[in-house]
Write a structure and sequence with these properties.
Layout (H helix, E strand, L loop, with lengths): L4 E2 L11 H5 L4 E8 L2 E8 L5 E7 L5 E3 L19 E4 L2 E5 L6 E4 L6 E2 L6 E9 L4 E8 L8 E8 L9 E4 L4 E7 L5 E7 L10 E7 L5 E9 L5 E6 L5 E5 L7 E6 L2 E4 L19 E5 L2 E8 L2 E8 L5 E3 L6 E7 L3 E7 L6 E6 L4 E7 L14 E6 L5 E7 L6 E2 L8 E5 L13 H7 L4 E6 L8 H4 L9 H15 L8 E6 L1 H12 L5 E5 L5 H6 L8 H5 L7 H6 L13 E6 L8 H13 L3 E6 L9 H19 L16
Helix pairs in contact: 4-5
Length: about 650
Amino acid sequence: MTTPQIASYGSWKSPITADLIVTAANNLGQIVLEGDSIYWIERRPSEGGRNAIVRRTPDGTITDLLPLPFNARTRVHEYGGGDFTVSKGVVYFSNFADQRLYRLVPGSEPVPLSPARDIRFADAVVDQQRNLLFSVSEDHTDESREAVNSLVSLPLTGDAEGNVQIIASGNDFYSSPRLSPDGSHLSWLTWNHPNMPWDGTELWIGDLDAQGFISNARLVTGGRDLSIVQPTWAPDGTLHFVSEQDNGWWNLYRLRSGQIEPLYPMEAEFGMPQWVFGISTYGFASSQRIICTYTQNGINHLASLNTTTGKLTNYESPYTTIGSLQVTATHAIFLAASPTEPAALIRLTLDNGEFEVLRRSREITLDRAYFSVPEAIEFPTEHGKTAHAFFYPPCNPDFQAPAGELPPLLVEIHGGPTSATSSAFNLSRQFWTSRGIAVLDVNYGGSTGFGREYRQRLNGQWGVVDVDDCVNGAKYLVERGLVDGKRLAITGGSAGGYTTLCALTFRDTFSTGASHFGVSDIEALAQDTHKFESRYDSSLIGPYPESINLYKERSPIHHTDRLSRPIIFFQGLEDKIVLPNQSERMVEALRQKGLPVAYVTFEGEQHGFRRAENIKRALEGELYFYGRIFGFPVADEIEPVEIENL
């Protein structure tokens, strides 16, 4: 065994390079099952972040179905999801460039189904009986008003310039149109401003006539303060859904004989927030057997629920993160990862509990000794409460630090903010730990996976509770003697970038940080953002403009006099969610104060970076910046980032 080299934390040479991270890595997405074939999305940084559609046939043959330059990605709600569906071997998908719906017979060129107008589509379901496709629609054709969302139908074949028939409208948002097994009913979710779908939604059912129009629409459950997610029909025609109605946790329910019945009350989350369409956390092996995934303490579990006996049986799974679950009578197909295994397409044989990897997001040939395994921690925070995080200590078998030296800490903040981080293997996180930088990945109050009460801690307290929890998480590690209290950095994207900027502006715990397309002016966000999130801040901050003083109080851009920390900013120049001026104003403020500041922009990128070269530049640029600020030599050969005032 080679004796580890003595070197300061942060300066360790690592085989986990930025090139490795972006090379041959495909992010796996939405899964669709049809017959014995499996279809899924692969987002490929090497192809400019394009979403490809891939099929695996029963003999194991894997085929790319979507010809270049087509990109299966919808922009409904800007975050998309529910990008494609399959029926009788034909693929129906939304194309990113023009947002039109297309019909793809594998081996042929895609044919447009929707007109060449500024209308977006998502979360489609095919009705072969009526020769129709039902879909969520977002109409942007009238630039003088907010986009109009509705449920629509389109013919599966015929003139693409023909009618898009509206079948449900009048509310601000719609999702999850689901056709009953006999084709007689359609269920869907809807909600209105100022709600986000995790605040409250309504579940509706309507009768379908021969032309696909809805009659006798009736409310099943839900409301302003009750979040319903993922309606799904059992094979016998019983409608199931996930609701928080009894215990404040997303649990499974069904509608039977006009009555709503809980299936397995439990302090666990069987659902997740509807940031995107097409979320799937359960499915039916039979009308009496549900295969489901649930979250407890940030960890996903896989189980079988007998709806007759009410017995829940866990599978002994090696995975801690599970998503896009699809189920047949004999198998469950899903995406999964563990702290040491990257995301993969997995098939579970239900009868014997055997797991099989069908497709990996990437092949890992590195020795697992380079991987830091996270510790799930709970730590005290404000008002006698507890918060959650995953702690990753430095890990590299080739190096050890000089005696008495403690590592720098990078606190990572997930976006959303109504979202969550997980313990899933993340090579970008290992990029830091293998260089001798500890990472704390925080599920601050407001994160999902811990029940409604934990999620609602952030209501009216954005920029306070999240910052408190990040500060207290870092202090907790310092007090335990695990990290260097003088070398604390914080980083985040989008809402995580906002928390980062708040922490660096209003607190003195962190020495530096990185904002990736982060919010600096929440008033500007309230005034100029897309429809889906245009009232989000009403619950996070307060109604606007009535609470304008609070918006200014919580916006870092109005308090740059309190800034005394170096910051690096990364920004996509086509971001429609957090506009580039949010970063540019902060950069100028730091520049005028004479504080070290760097600003890295990316042409063609939107909210989040998808192109391999840009992902690499952001990762290496952030490391270079910390090396200069903390004073450790970076072992990698990195193109320098221009740092003003340093």
